Amino acid sequence: MKRQQPFLIRLTKFLVGFKLTPIGRVAVLGIFLSAIGAVTVEIPIYQIFCGLVAFFGLIELTGILLRPKVDVKVWLPDRVTAGESVTGYLTITNLGWLPACDIMCVMFGLPGGLRHVDADRSIQWIGVGETDTLPFTIEAKSRGEYLLPEIRVHSTFPFNLMRFGKAKAPQLELLVVPAFEPIGRYSLPFSRKFQVGGVTVDSQIGQSTEFVGNREYVPGEPARKLDFKAWARVGHPVVREFQDEVTSDVALILDVFRPTEWRRFGMASKQLETAVSLTAAIAHSLDQHQSSVEVFGCGPDLYLFQPSAQGSHFESILQILAVTQRNRYDSFSQLTEAMTEPLESTAVAICIFLTWNPEREHFLRMMYESGIGVRCYLVVDARDEIMVPDDLEVAVIDPKDPSALEGIE
């Protein structure tokens, strides 16, 4: 059971966080400063103290008597791109017996990646029984999946020093997807399995598979793949291999592991954001030019998308990238094990790494040897001394270079 905070702490949070407006906090500070003169009536400053206290008492009484009674409905788009702003609307109906004046909204406890940019916007007057709309704008500074706090609708009448009202709008969810620069048409690397226009034809005639040969049986494979005639001919278990007749699947792999270096934590964040933006840009280009991403690896997780007539999974990839975080533990071996079977039907693999080691080099070579077209991007600091073999197609991207992604094609 969550322990309840002491009453004084809760009261202070209510007064400072909600009850007092920014101008009201300054006025209360003036009351405390003028209280110094209240120790004696010989100093005229005590009159200022008494006047401010009486003034706030009058505001509190007026605000309680004129406190608005309203009904609130809210609408807000459920998605926005990082770095952009999204505007929602509050539909406010006055249910009280008196007009509602100086109606505003506030969102306390807004997550750090979001900012309410027009908290000072207000509706001056809502007549009895009338309805008006109050827009509010949220700036999304960083990607993620956010649960917004309740939007509290209140009145600052009179004098805009204190807030009055209990109306609330329900909590909303907001998905902030990564920002990226479109890269035009992305040229896929050469692959022995690649067939141009496969997805376009596939969306018209449906899926079919083609027998391409036999290979030795690997323990654990389904028995339906066994070729008994070939087994009898060669004397050991063999299985049939099939591939899509017209479709060439693309695997997009984002490895989010990077060894922790406390002195360069900011660089790790830049690396991740650059890698996420690059992944989104490549997925967008493939989606725009009729290439199907059927396998998506992100950190330790593997996503296998079902083929569809539309052939587009870009929106799903964006949703995954929106909540992707850096992996503090190297789980690359789990990903490679999970990808063993999906890679059999993959024609092209595009990899984005944050670090380089023999395990990742072996993974690339394994795909090369199996006939998969491979392209790898290594997002690392230019100061890092990383030796990449010349026979592997690996492009090094410096996250500090603003133009690093301009040459991607």
TrEMBL record:
TM stretches of this protein: 20-39, 45-66
Domain DUF58: 215-401
Keyword Transmembrane helix recorded: yes
Presence of the UniProt keyword Translocase in the record: no
Protein name as catalogued: DUF58 domain-containing protein
Stored Pfam families: DUF58 (PF01882)
Entry keyword set: Membrane, Transmembrane, Transmembrane helix
Domain of life (superkingdom): Bacteria
